[in-house]
Each structure stands twice: as C-alpha cells, then as structure tokens.
Amino acid sequence: MSKITITPAEGTWIIRAGGAVLGESSHALELVEGDRAPVIYFPREDMGMAFLEATDHKTTCPLKGDASYFSIMSKSKTYVNAVWSYETPIDDVKQIAGYLAFEVQEGVAIEQLP
User: Fold this and answer.
1) pLDDT at residue 79 tops 90
2) Average pLDDT of the segment spanning 63-85
3) What is the pLDDT of residue 75?
4) Which of 70, 77, 81, 107 is the most buried (most CB within 10 A)?
C-alpha cells in the first residue's frame, strides 16, 4: 500500500479553467500518495462553486474512500468530471473532507502565486 502524507500547501494557490480564475486559497492542502505527483486540495469555501456542477460519477480509492465528482462549466468548454472530492474520507485522510482537487489538463491549471 502507498503511504499518504498531507501537509499545508505553502503559499497561495489559484485554479484556472477556460481562462477564468475559479478560486484562490492560502489554505490549500498538498496530498502525496506514494511516488505519484502531489495533488493540491482546495477548501470549498475558497472556490467559485457556481462554476462547478455535481455529476453522478463516483470512484473508490482504498486509501481515501469514495470520491464524488464535479464538471467545470466554463464559458468556452465543459470539463467533465474534472474535479473530485472526498466528502467522508477514511480516518487516515480526514483532513481532505469536503476539499476539492482538480485534474490538470489543457485549459485547467493550478498555479502557486510567487
């Protein structure tokens, strides 16, 4: 099993989709799972939830629990199931409960502000 570490993400982070800023946070978390690239999790209250639409898509991770998904609705494109959240994660990763993670892809970027 991969080991998961969760730490406060240093500095301020922003998420952009379709050229628009969806949110900015200095309270993001960085999750590292084994040798995978770190994933930044954003507090929901720092995101423009009006850009996100819940979908029926679900996945299960043995280390984190059940994830629910959102699509990003930008003016130019819909990024289907590009956002996930663990509403009730397993106890080992309970810090990410309700936080949002974004799939980086063309048109979706996560940036750390200098």
Assistant:
1) yes
2) 96
3) 86
4) 70
Q: How confident is the model at residue 103 (pLDDT cuts 50, 70, 90)?
A: very high
Domain count, the chain: 1
Burial class of residue 19 (count of CB atoms within 10 Å of its CB; 0-12, 13-18, 19+): exposed
Query: The CATH number of the domain where 87 resides is what?
Result: 2.170.150.40
Please compute Rg for the chain using Cα positions.
Answer: 13
Q: How far apart are CA 10 and CA 23, in angstroms?
A: 16
Domain limits for position 87: 4-112
Helical H segments across 3-114, by residue range? none
| Number of other residues whose CB lies within 10 A of the CB of residue 86 | 21
